[in-house]
Amino acid sequence: MDSPLSPHLKKKAQTLLVNSALLKRDEAETALQTVTCGQLHGDGSNRQFFRINSLRESVCILVIPAGEGEGDIAEARSAWQIGSHLSACNVPLPEIYAWDRETGILLFEDLGDMRLHDLLVAGGTTSWKKDGHLLTLYFQVIKELAHMQCAGAVGFDENWCWESSRYDQQLMLERESGYFLQAFWQGLLGKQTVQGVIEELKDIAQRASAAGTDYFLHRDFQCRNIMVKNGRVRFIDFQGGRMGPLGYDLASLLIDPYAGLSLTVQGELLDYYLASLRKHLTIDEKLFIDHYNLLAFQRNMQIVGAFSFLYTIRKKDFFADYIRPAVCSLAGRMQEPQFRQYPIISNMVRQGLELLPE
Known about the structure:
50% of the residues lie in helices and 11% in strands. The protein has twelve helices and nine strands. The chain folds into two domains: 7-108, Phosphorylase Kinase, domain 1, CATH 3.30.200; 116-355, Aminoglycoside 3'-phosphotransferase, Chain: A, domain 2, CATH 3.90.1200.10. It has helices spanning 7-19, 25-33, 70-88, 116-122, 133-151, 169-188, 197-209, 247-254, 263-277, 285-312, 320-333, 343-355; strands at residues 39-40, 48-54, 57-64, 96-99, 106-108, 215-217, 226-229, 232-235, 242-244. The model has no long low-confidence stretch (mean pLDDT 94). By secondary structure, it is α+β, with helices and mostly antiparallel strands. The strands form three sheets. Strands 1-2-3-5-4 form a five-stranded antiparallel β-sheet, sandwiched between helices. The chain has a two-stranded antiparallel sheet with strand order 6-9.
């Protein structure tokens, strides 16, 4: 069977496998020739993922950039540089074996196929009781999240970032609330932008930006980007990392539509996060909660926009089932006291929920 890789990419991958001492040259050539059997799939990413096997055992995961453009190679470079930094900080990531500067090819440790999301789908209600399996795993995730946010910020070089180097107000308006308006409100629902909503969204973003940018931010910290191997959680898809506020990644985890965590569980995990964070630094918890709600709003906007785009434009039907839960979460967020002064966006969210099919 012919390899799906071009001769040039196959040659580069073979060199990486050999130079990193994962395989001998003839073994690498054979493994790459039959690589189609191990092709994997990302969620929203257009990168290509392949499982490299030798003698029926997995050797590593081969990641090919989505294209050959400058941005594609920069994304791969960020994965290598940010991943190397976080690994040096003892953040639980897959081991990164090699990276090719020219093509952007990466070789990662194979963590298997078990995501935290898979365990959520399979788990029962007892998993959330005291000492339950899922609750124990989430506690582990949160403990490592607090460590990553604080330790990962030390010595972080913003030149490693392939997109923006910090999570700021402009990003919120363009990539989050703007994403909601364009991909969901206009794209999916076919509605016109309501007068006055931009001003409300600018005000929310300005208040959210007060949370600062002093910590490492993963920015897509959800259950499908958390692997579980031998009872230990590992974080993936970190190449979009940058400096940002504490509450954003926590919000990504707690309001994750894939997980559908109850408000009771979210509250318990929030308390555990604050307890974990106290081991690293001292914070004003009341102010943190205020910022958390604003950042959760921003993240929720991003989720609804991204899922709508991936469903309508990328034609990825997988995301369709999660749009309504994400909008429901956003509608619930709008009931918090700090959002009562924003009637326009609140009404748009309610109307959006009514227009979506069950």
